[in-house]
Amino acid sequence: MSIPLTDHRLSWEDLPDSVHDRITAHYGRVDKAETVHGERPGFAGRVYAQRDDAFIKAVPLTAPSADLALVRSEQRAAEILHTHPEPTPAPVLLWTNTVDGWLILAWELINDHARHADLGPGSGDLPFVLDTLGWLAEEPITAHGRSAAEHYNRVWAAGRVLLDQPATLPNPRLYRGALDGFDVDRLDGASLVHTRLGRRSILVKDNQIFVVSWSHWCRGPWWIDLASLAPHFIAKGNTPEQTDEMLGAAVERWPEASAADVAGVAALEALHHRYLAEYGPKLRSEEEARLAVACHEWLAYWAAHRLPALT
Question: Of 1, 24, 27, 193, which one has the greatest count of Cβ atoms within 10 A?
Fold first, then answer.
């Protein structure tokens, strides 16, 4: 079967019979399957079956059009959720299987009634989001995996493109100052780091937070997820000052985070979102541009209050 690499996922009907058979052998007759559309190939959707309902992904492992990076990212998500099944604030990974060159993963179905978290000022979701941030900051990791240094080295690879085009940046001196002497290798640690926290990856159901999209997890310092989520608060209308206060409310030791390293990460995140707005999928360019602006506001605030020599 040829797997089309399009801007949307496959439907249930597009999957091979062998995948259908493996899923129905586990869950019983499938009464309804709803595709959740996205930019990556394969199937992802809500499956309502005779014995249970689940959120299922099926991605090709060996087809000519298989996205091996996607496959590995899905396997990484499965690894960390198996290692930290409880009380990780994530849907429970229920079952994995392979058949005829396809990887199948099934999670508990929460997003039929869940919604994306509201990160705006005064939102009733904020206390629950902050509690989750506090949990992540204190959660040690025992699983072997790549470090945050490796993750941000990849982010920096794209950022360097924009540093070589200073006219594209609102304040090139600020970015160069934040990155001058910044050592990505310092971003090592023993905490579980999500790295992709944002409105899209934080779901709310019955006042409970579920963090999804764990495929880029790594080991790193306790403060990284706080710092990388900060621009998402700002993009939704919170001021940098309010955001700083919220992070302190989430984790008391937030003021102890290395000011220089937080600035370095903020600069890299800003460059990353600006790069994606320019060169990434057009479908997400406006959102990425807004996040790039929010990252810049966060970096400028952080530098002015913690590293005034940069401003």
Answer: 193
